[in-house]
């Protein structure tokens, strides 16, 4: 994580139809109500915002459905430190982190 922060990669936003966004592999793991979407269909609008880290959507380090706001570049974040890691359900882990 800190390596990608130091690379100072651009953080970009693109709006696109939901079905196209899903085809890009963009992650969309949580519903508007806070529940997990693992194994279920979530209700997203027909047009969604996808944030991606990198120069292009196709070669992005990370891409996710999200409403933002976000930093313009990863270098704005600062050093990332994991303070806790735990199991939240079978096959799902959660990390808690701080910027130091």
Automatic annotation (TrEMBL):
One of its GO terms (biological process) is alanyl-tRNA aminoacylation. It comes from the Bacteria. InterPro entries: Ala-tRNA-synth_IIc_core, Ala-tRNA_ligase, Thr/Ala-tRNA-synth_IIc_edit, tRNA_SAD. Residues 1-100 form the Alanyl-transfer RNA synthetases family profile domain. SUPFAM superfamilies: ThrRS/AlaRS common domain. Pfam families: tRNA_SAD. GO terms for molecular function: alanine-tRNA ligase activity; aminoacyl-tRNA deacylase activity; ATP binding; nucleic acid binding. This is Alanyl-transfer RNA synthetases family profile domain-containing protein. The lineage of its organism: Bacteria, Candidatus Joergenseniibacteriota.
């Amino acid at each position: 994580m800190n390596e990608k922060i130091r690379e100072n990669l651009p953080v970009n936003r693109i709006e696109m139809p939901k079905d196209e966004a899903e085809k890009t592999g963009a992650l969309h793991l949580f519903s508007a109500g806070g529940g997990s979407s693992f194994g279920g269909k979530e209700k997203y609008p027909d047009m969604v915002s996808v944030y991606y880290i990198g120069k292009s959507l196709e070669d992005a380090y990370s891409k996710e459905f999200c409403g933002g706001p976000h930093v313009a570049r990863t270098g704005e974040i600062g050093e990332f430190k994991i303070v806790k890691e735990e199991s939240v359900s079978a096959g799902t882990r959660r990390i808690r982190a701080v910027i130091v």
